[in-house]
Amino acid sequence: MKRLIAFDLDGTLAESKQAIDAEMGALLAGLSRWIVVAVISGGDWPQFQQQLIGNLPKGIDLSRWFLLPTSGTKLYRHEGGDWRQVYAQSFTDDERTRILRALDTAVVAAGLSEDRIWGDRIEDRGSQITFSGLGQHAPLEAKQLWDPDFIKRKRLQAALAPLLPRFAVRVGGSTSIDITREGVDKAFGMSQLADVAGIPTKDMIFLGDAIYPGGNDDAVRAAGIDSIAVRDVHETKRVAEGITLCLAGMRE
Length: 252
Description:
Elements: E1 4-7, H1 22-31, E2 36-40, H2 45-51, E3 65-68, E4 74-79, E5 82-88, H3 93-109, E6 122-124, E7 129-132, H4 140-146, H5 151-160, E8 167-172, E9 176-181, H6 186-197, E10 204-208, H7 218-222, E11 226-229, H8 233-251
Helix pairs in contact: 1-8, 3-5
């Protein structure tokens, strides 16, 4: 029987950089009555606070939750009434400089110099550097139209690969590319989570919208963890409902 369910955030629990809605919050709260809940995403801790934590129903038991920002390169758990960082796999100054230089070169090579952007295109998240094609503050409608077939980001991914041989470059969200150390990805995060939570990965299940070759959720599937690919937030809700009903029925 599964003891932990993990979710991606953007595109799975909520639209890109948007808050979870009341229905999703209620579904997650209901799930956490029966099973440990984890959320692992390319976003950093402030994004988790804005999109997820601040929109969960009041009074839920957060000690049954684990949060893994920046593709699992950080892990937080709730103890003593507050969230505590358990670990962070942060870049060195030299690694950061190499990544930023590679991005400057690859963006030009991939032909992604956009005429209009909203905010910075590159965000340093400490343990992950993320490139957002239209900038960090682009409106949702523009993001959904920019690269729905992943062609632009796969072109950038291909341009970055030879420039960053000891790093992982993965497609994530609706307009972004996530860069971490090689081997430090969502599968790494799930492995660390297994140690911290005391729950083996065989007793976990993962839901994400980027479970495809090169997607930043696919490392979890490739690591042998049972995974469900969802198309969007609506499908996540229906899957969560089904899992909750199954778990509740098994415990009665």
